[in-house]
Design a protein that fits this description.
Number of strands of chain B: 11
Shape of chain A: globular
Oligomer: heterodimer
Low-confidence stretches of chain A: none
Structural class of chain A: mainly beta
Largest interface: A-B, 17 and 22 residues
Distance between the termini of chain B: 36 Å
Number of strands of chain A: 12
Structural class of chain B: mainly beta
Largest sheet of chain B: 7 strands, mixed
Number of helices of chain A: 0
Low-confidence stretches of chain B: none
Chain lengths: 111, 118
């Protein structure tokens, strides 16, 4: 079945450091891929998405490229800020329109 | 983006009682809503898919008689945890899939409901 495997955390970075959170997926067909963010005490919010191979999703300085050949959708940001501290979830929407989430990666950015 | 309101945001109840959680899409219609359960430091586990006007589809291992789902309108789905026990304590999150409009098919999440069963 469809599934998402996400890099385990927690991740702690200094401000302005480079961030990569790995995400790989298994799916039948051609899923859409998403990154969601959950700030402390809040619900999930869509961060970015990509709906087909080679698409790049971007938002708030974060980027992720849909790589069909490696079945990956790694999240990157060139310079993280303290306000980026949150839990990040990789997800896919499969053929049945159901969403499958990774286990989440907690990011803490220290000044 | 669109707003999904979940209520209550937290609830404490005694073992054996039932608790109802509401999920409302405030500014869009949602023919499909999803209910998830999130354990501490773990991912969201899909419990069931709720379709307006029809019975919910439950994931394997989720007791449909314990977690009653009703989706009576295009903007409201409810999850009732019946005869709650301490092991039902968790964070429950709903999401609504927008139907029509520019955000058609997009998924929006409620802020979650923390249930504690004593």
């Amino acid at each position: 079945g469809d599934s998402v495997t996400q890099m385990e955390g927690p991740v702690t970075l200094s401000e302005e450091a480079f961030l990569t959170i790995n995400c790989t997926y298994t799916a039948t067909g051609y899923p859409s891929l998403f990154w969601y963010v959950q700030y402390p005490g809040e619900g999930l919010q869509l961060l970015l998405k990509a709906t087909k191979a080679d698409d790049k999703g971007s938002n708030k300085g974060f980027e992720a490229t849909y790589r069909k050949e490696t079945t990956s959708f790694h999240l990157e940001k060139g310079s993280v800020q303290v306000s980026d501290s949150a839990v990040y979830f990789c997800a896919l929407r499969g053929a049945g329109n159901q969403f499958y989430f990774g286990t989440g990666t907690s990011l803490t950015v220290i000044p | 983006g669109a707003v999904v309101s979940q209520h209550p945001s937290w609830v404490i109840c005694k073992s054996g009682t039932s608790v109802k959680i509401e999920c409302r899409s405030l500014d869009f219609q949602a023919t499909t809503m999803f209910w998830y359960r999130q354990f501490p430091k773990q991912s969201l586990m899909l419990m069931a898919t709720s379709n307006e006007g029809s019975k919910a589809t439950y994931e394997q291992g989720v007791e449909k008689d314990k977690f009653l789902i009703n989706h009576a309108s295009l903007t409201l789905s409810t999850l009732t945890v019946t005869s709650a026990h301490p092991e039902d304590s968790s964070f429950y999150i709903c999401s609504a899939k927008a139907s029509g409009g520019t955000q058609n098919g997009e998924l929006f999440f409620g802020e979650g409901s923390r249930l504690t069963v004593l």
